[in-house]
Amino acid sequence: MSMPFSLPPAVSLLAATSRLIDLHQSRREDSGAYSPIVPDGAGRNLGIALLTLEILREIEMERGFGFVTVEELHLHINEQVADVLREELDFILELIAHEREIRFAVPNNARQFEYRSTRQTTNLILFADSHAQIKMTENGRLFLRICDEERAWLYNDADTTKLITALRYGKFYDLPPLCRSISLELASKSAMLTDLIELPTRKEQCDTLIADGKGIGEMLQNAKETVQEAMKIAFDVRTYDLFEEWREKEKAEIGLGNIQAELEVLLKIIESVSRRFIDFLSIAQQRRDVEVTSYKFLEIADHLVAACDAQSADQLEKFMASIIFPHFSIQWFHPSILPGEIDFYELMDRANGNEPAPNIFNFTNKKDVVIKRFYAFVERNRERLYARLESGPLPFSELLVSMDFELHPGESPLDFIGIYTTPEAVDGAGAWGAKLIVGFTGRETTQNIDKAVVIASDPLIFIGE
Amino acid sequence: MTPSESGLVFSVLLNHRTITDNPQDRAPHKDEIDAARILSNCSSSQLLDFEDFLNAQGLSLHIIDGLDIGIPPKPSGSNKFYILIRKRGTDPAAYFDQRWFIEGMRDKRKERGEDSLENSRVDTIFWFARLWLNLQWFFYEKISRQPSQVSRYDRALVLTDNFVKVVNEGIETMGNRGRPEDEAGVMYDVLWKGRTQIKTWVKRFLRTMEQAGVIEETRVPGEYRQTLAAAVDMAMIAERELAYLMPPTGKDNIMPRSVMLLTGAPLPVEISEGDSHASN
Hints:
The complex is a heterodimer.
Chain A: H1 9-25, H2 42-63, E1 68-69, H3 70-80, H4 86-97, E2 102-107, E3 113-118, E4 125-127, E5 133-136, H5 138-151, H6 157-168, H7 175-198, H8 203-211, H9 213-234, H10 237-250, H11 256-287, H12 297-306, H13 312-323, E6 327-328, H14 344-351, H15 367-389, E7 394-395, H16 396-402, H17 423-427, E8 436-439, E9 444-449, E10 452-457, E11 460-463
Antiparallel strand pairs in A: 1-5, 2-3, 4-5, 7-11, 8-11, 9-10
Chain B: H1 3-16, E1 18-20, H2 32-40, H3 44-56, E2 59-65, E3 80-86, E4 96-97, H4 100-104, H5 121-139, E5 157-159, H6 160-177, H7 186-193, H8 198-211, E6 215-217, E7 223-226, H9 228-239, H10 254-263, H11 269-278
Antiparallel strand pairs in B: 1-3, 2-3, 5-7, 6-7
């Protein structure tokens, strides 16, 4: 795998617009997606052109917007690249000084395109009359400025000041889209940081960010303060009045609350990106020299064929079972299927020094009588219950109606209710027969017992190991 | 988090693996928004308790801030993504079926008497492993992405027809290379025999992967994208399990590594070294 490298901003910009230029040059008759064949010397030519622009700017910064002789420019270029010939330079200057036509179209109110064209905004330098001197055009400067933007990573504080302007001048409609566009921009930066954290091998990119660390930190801090300031204004009484007045006039459907909420989200995002940036700095500095393993999945697949033996199937099955997320499909649920099950009621009872009380119910209201009667009832009917469950799992409702309970005076099948909260009363934790398992189903049952309508859970009851 | 709240959260996690209050390109699942609210209101000690509970089931909770993967938050949402993952080094609880995928790959038409494939368990495993590796090729190698780059999960896409094509080409190349001798030719035989049924295998495999929550269908029928949960899984698989499948470097051979896989022992140093040299 070739190591990723970062592009100089000018090349990024060129690359980003190149397909539009290609499209601009292509004809529909050409079949397929048109892509010009790049000549061998393209890289060199581009290199010289970009050097020219950079040198012109440096000179401009030193002396202001004057003309520079081609001879001087050539000397400066040779300081950086020794073998650039004057003829080459002349060819390139001629080309970038030449205007070309750009045709474009803008939609009008009638949902049609209006066609236009421009020439003046295409040449990057212009020659003096003598052709021996050049200077950069506005387009050249624009190009360099956009390149700088690409370098000015995370410098969103300039955008955030627009929030305050919009609030002060009552341009409330502008605020939500402004907040969202800043949010989106910050989210993309945050994703980019994550990308670098996840694969910290793009050294140049990492280095640029690390070197800019202090500046970026300050910018984020400024952005944060600006948004806080904007929030102060948004929550101010005067803004409220201004907003109400505006809303009346515009018949707007948004409330000031919406704007306040958007600002709050924005503040959260800035804080989060700041944290992410700190994460990035600490991780990037530790792991910059880490080399990454390259995974060649198709080669692994072929390797498995070549290295196959009698154990392969079992090993692969084990391997796949260990990486594919396990499936769960159960028709019923009981806490006992979860490892580490805890009965909080039981814990509470034991903590108070009491025997766990079964959660039961009948029409006798005295608690100790209820419990005694319940256990006596269970004792008497245990064998019948097991016998009934031998044939397979049964819902509680079916047991209630189909079991032939041995009843004492005053008892009814109602005494059986509550059994699903205390299966251990029946099986004595295995002491009196196989374990009784109660699985919750989420269903309910309605029964008429003793002239009462009883609505209870309808779990599935069965005998386990 | 009350016990009933943890029950709700756990059930949503079991059913969908991911909980978020800012789902992308899909409607929230049943109870998902409530579960996300419960989780985002948890204190860190409550989250630790919940993590303990999950650990006992052989599971763990992985939390991602949506902003970190380029998803801007909505007002009143936490924008967190809670993902249920396996806890490395422990077995999942008994109520999980770890080998369900073999059953999942079974031809459902068989019961209707339309099955044209007499596929045994071994066939299924060999095909499954091969298709899984091919799928990872689409998600990583093809788009120059490393398994550690979880955040690029949204770029990992595969179109069924292209998938079939790549698998087909792979099997053809394998055929041209010739059958390894004797016992070593078992996988070759299985794959070669199944080459006329590649479409069917791929269809079943993608269906199983969708069920496993590894992929989800995009708005284009037949085109799938990797899920965030699968990307999180793969980052860990690459770190730990995948090395067992890698071709051995130098004198090392596959047998000891298989034993290590079975016993869960860490990889020996020489393999790790070999891997890091591979990209030099």
